[in-house]
Task: inverse folding
């Protein structure tokens, strides 16, 4: 059987195309609330049909950014553009943007159908058109059998889908989701409606699996924007490296530079980064980071093939996670992690707390961090 046809890997990447015009642009946007700066000189471009995820700790400005796009807040400085149009002065209901809140409120006394139809009825649309559009929206969220129910007769997930249908029926260009919906079939929605999503999420796995790109925010600024693999494999700073997934991060000082190969003296010995993304000078304070799953762990006596950084330590504890096991290893006062895929079926753990071990990392797995 022929495999199903798939778009070429990386085919959708308008952000790499200098000729592509972004749909949403934040251009040097600052938002102050009194003395507090919620968003600081932030510039960001989102392209049509992206599923763009905003990630960052509580209070970093994610909601404020979305509220400025939806029109519920006005920038203190800078511009927000949609399809090239400056949105300043355009009220929320005239923006082709729909914001779904965590605390979406359905009308309790109205049926599912009436809840979804409400916005179109307010616009004074003809009954036939409302009926057709509501029917289509309910089909898209797979609620077409429940049109006559009241919200209290629905599950939590079904209520979310009613709120989604209510947003979809208005055919927004951009749908803003404050915490996305488990029920969301993003491929279906994007292919059928050509929608662009901007989501706020606290769920890293969700951002990794769903997003076209992720923006990691820090105190009102963008720390990094990139595809999920770029954010994970090539973080631009200690902050981003530590924010997404687990990481080993060791501070040190540059001791040698030969092209892109940079050697860093650290508490756990010299670490030679083979593919340094940043230009550094001998004597500069930097950090070296690597992911636990790129770390080999063996007993202290075992041989390690040449060319790897080798760190001696003692197992502190072992976390068994089914698919993988994470070893926490104490080495020169640092606690490092090695995650090993449990490829063989075994109920025995080969290593335990107190065991002397060696950690080994290949130079291309090491990330040099300056910021
Ligand atoms: P969370 O993940 O907790 O929802 P967030 O990243 O969405 O956080 P925002 O809601 O954008 O953060 O808030 C950013 C900062 O601006 C916070 O310090 C917040 O206290 C402040 N802020 C937001 N709205 C207002 C307001 N209306 N008045 C004063 N300060 C505000």
Result:
């Amino acid at each position: 059987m022929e495999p199903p046809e798939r778009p070429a890997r990386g085919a959708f990447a308008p952000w790499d195309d200098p000729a592509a015009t972004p749909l949403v642009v934040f251009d040097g946007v600052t938002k102050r609330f009194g003395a507090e700066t919620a968003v600081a000189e932030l510039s960001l471009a989102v392209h049509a049909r992206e599923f763009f995820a905003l990630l960052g700790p509580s209070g970093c400005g994610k909601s404020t950014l979305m509220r400025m796009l939806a029109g519920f807040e006005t920038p203190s400085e800078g511009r927000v553009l949609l399809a090239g149009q400056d949105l300043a002065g355009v009220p929320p209901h005239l923006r082709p943007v729909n914001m779904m809140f965590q605390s979406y409120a359905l009308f309790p006394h109205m049926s599912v159908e009436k809840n979804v139809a409400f916005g179109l009825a307010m616009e004074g649309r003809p009954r036939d058109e409302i009926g057709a559009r509501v029917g289509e929206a309910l089909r898209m969220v797979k609620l077409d059998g429940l049109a006559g129910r009241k919200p209290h007769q629905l599950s939590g997930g079904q209520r979310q889908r009613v709120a989604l249908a209510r947003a979809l029926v208005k055919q927004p260009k951009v749908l803003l989701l404050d915490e996305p919906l488990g029920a969301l079939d993003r491929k279906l929605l994007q292919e059928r409606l050509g929608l662009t999503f901007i989501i706020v999420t606290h769920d890293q796995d969700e951002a990794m699996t769903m997003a076209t790109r992720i923006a990691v925010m820090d105190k009102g600024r963008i720390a990094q924007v990139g595809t999920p693999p770029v954010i994970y494999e090539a973080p631009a700073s200690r902050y981003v490296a530590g924010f997404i997934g687990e990481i080993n991060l060791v501070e040190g000082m540059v001791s040698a530079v030969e092209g892109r190969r940079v050697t860093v003296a650290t508490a756990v010995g010299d670490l030679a980064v083979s593919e340094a993304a940043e230009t550094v000078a001998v004597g500069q304070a930097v950090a070296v980071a690597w992911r636990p799953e790129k770390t080999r762990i063996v007993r202290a006596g075992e041989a390690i093939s040449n060319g790897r950084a080798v760190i001696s330590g003692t197992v502190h504890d072992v976390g068994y996670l089914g698919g993988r096991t994470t070893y926490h290893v104490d080495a020169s006062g640092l606690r490092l992690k090695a995650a090993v895929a449990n490829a063989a079926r075994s109920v025995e753990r080969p290593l335990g707390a107190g065991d002397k071990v060696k950690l080994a990392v290949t130079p291309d797995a090491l990330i040099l961090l300056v910021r």
